[in-house]
Design goal:
Blueprint lengths: L9 H20 L8 H8 L2 H23 L5 H24 L4 H24 L3 H5 L4 H18 L3 H10 L4 H18 L1 H6 L5 H9 L1 H14 L5 H21 L1
Helix pairs in contact: 1-2, 1-3, 1-12, 2-3, 2-5, 2-13, 3-9, 3-11, 3-12, 4-7, 4-9, 5-8, 5-13, 7-8
């Protein structure tokens, strides 16, 4: 068990770590958004700030698998509209992480709040049928808002999945196009965050060893995602993921 772990029980540590890696792999090649469960779980077993960097190489590994399976389905016009704004958000998030004096306890609450807020926003957008609302995603300013918000949340909490899900769901992309476009967006964004996380001291040789140990769980999750994405009932699974994510986020906020 890594020395920088936040909990004492090796059994509980490896269970939570395996579950986190599994859902990252599953979300990248199966149900996009399932990976949000990994964010509060990782913040439970590692110091909250450092957990964002420790999680990053695992996300990139999942992105690579997702890109491999769905590379031909990416919609680049939608990717290129949001990416420049996302880079602005990443820079802003890095500055916040580097120069703010927020404590670990407060940052733990911040991650929990971000996860819940992103889930609420995503749920609201999925349920609205207003005609004017449906036109919003095709405006430049919507892509800008999504990009900057996604960049900040991905840099500070790795919680931009629901943000970009709102963007792509609102464009009514077919399932394969949605997964392929999401995979490329996060592969580009997550790789661009590596030097920032290294500068913050969140990625070290020790954390990379832990990441390597999680590869089997990531691969298993990705394999399950690819095999089940055509058959699983999205509504049922999404509801379970949301429930567990809310419970984990509540644990971070109120513990």
């Amino acid at each position: 068990m890594p020395a920088f772990s936040n909990i004492d029980s090796p059994t509980m540590f490896w269970i939570l770590a395996f579950v986190s890696a599994f859902f990252i792999g599953f979300s990248k090649s199966g149900i996009s958004g399932a990976g949000i469960l990994a964010i509060p779980l990782m913040a439970c077993i590692f110091p909250p700030k450092e957990s964002t960097g420790i999680l990053l190489p695992m996300l990139i590994m999942g992105d690579i698998i997702g890109v491999y399976f769905y590379r031909q389905h990416a919609q680049w016009k939608h990717i290129l509209r949001a990416l420049p704004w996302a880079f602005v958000g990443i820079a802003a998030g890095w500055a916040f992480m580097k120069y703010s004096d927020i404590s670990q306890a407060d940052f733990k609450k911040y991650i929990g709040v971000v996860v819940i807020v992103m889930l609420i926003i995503g749920e609201w957008f999925n349920r609205t049928n207003d005609e004017k609302t449906q036109k919003v995603p095709h405006t430049w300013w919507f892509a800008a808002i999504i990009g900057v918000t996604g960049g900040i949340t991905t840099m500070t909490a790795n919680a931009a999945g629901p943000v970009f899900a709102i963007y792509l769901l609102s464009l009514s992309l077919p399932k394969e196009n949605f997964i392929g476009t999401t995979a490329w967006i996060f592969f580009i964004l997550n790789t661009s965050k590596v030097l920032f996380s290294w500068d913050l001291g969140f990625i070290t040789k020790e954390t990379l060893v832990f990441n390597a140990e999680m590869i089997p769980a990531l691969v298993i999750g990705s394999f399950v995602g690819v095999k089940t994405v055509k058959y699983i009932k999205n509504n049922t699974f999404s509801m379970l993921v949301k429930v567990f994510a809310i419970l984990a986020a509540a644990y971070l906020i109120f513990k």
